[in-house]
Amino acid sequence: VQLQASGGGLVQPGGSLRLSCAASGRIFRLFTMGWYRQAPGKQRELVATITSDGRIINADFVKGRFTISKDNAKNTVYLQMNSLIPEDTAVYYCNARRGWPPTENYWGQGTQVTVSS
């Protein structure tokens, strides 16, 4: 199973980025897709998830700044990040899991997001 994440980079505070994660069709139809992040010296944490039928869970810190969405035709999940702050600096990982507890669980390679002036 391959999850191909892209879209990270360096952005100034207050700026925006959109992350993308492409997955196979089987994954997209059956799995909950999500974004997690890990800052230096911290544990990996949930950012947002979206189920196969479109239900969304956001972390509290998202506070309307980030939006997870997916394009079923492209088998791609997105994370639109607006009003970025330096505390959002982290490696962002795409995740695909089936069930809870997960019977299958896959991670993408991670994409670096750096928010700095």
Brief characterization of the structure:
This protein is mainly beta and 117 residues long.
Can you give a write-up of this model?
Strand 9 and strand 10 form a beta hairpin. Strands 2, 4, 5, 6, 9, 10 and 11 form a 7-stranded mixed beta sheet that branches. This protein has a 4-stranded antiparallel beta sheet with strand order 1-3-8-7, with no helix packed on it. The chain is globular. It starts with a strand and ends with a strand. It contains 1 helix and 11 strands; from the N terminus they run βββαββββββββ. By secondary structure, the protein is mainly beta.
- The amount of helix comes to under 10%
Gross morphology? globular
Arithmetic mean of pLDDT: 93
Number of strands: 11
Percent strand: over 45%
Distance between the termini: 37 Å
Topology as a string of helices (H) and strands (E): EEEHEEEEEEEE
Structural class: mainly beta
Radius of gyration: 13 Å
Enumerate how many helices there are, as a single number: 1
List segments where confidence is low: pLDDT < 50 over at least 5 consecutive residues.
Answer: none
Q: How would you characterize the largest beta sheet?
A: 7 strands, mixed
List the helices and strands and how they pair.
Layout: E1 4-6, E2 9-11, E3 17-22, H1 25-30, E4 32-38, E5 45-50, E6 56-58, E7 66-71, E8 76-81, E9 90-98, E10 104-107, E11 111-115
Parallel strand pairs: 2-11
Antiparallel strand pairs: 1-3, 3-8, 4-5, 4-9, 5-6, 7-8, 9-10, 9-11
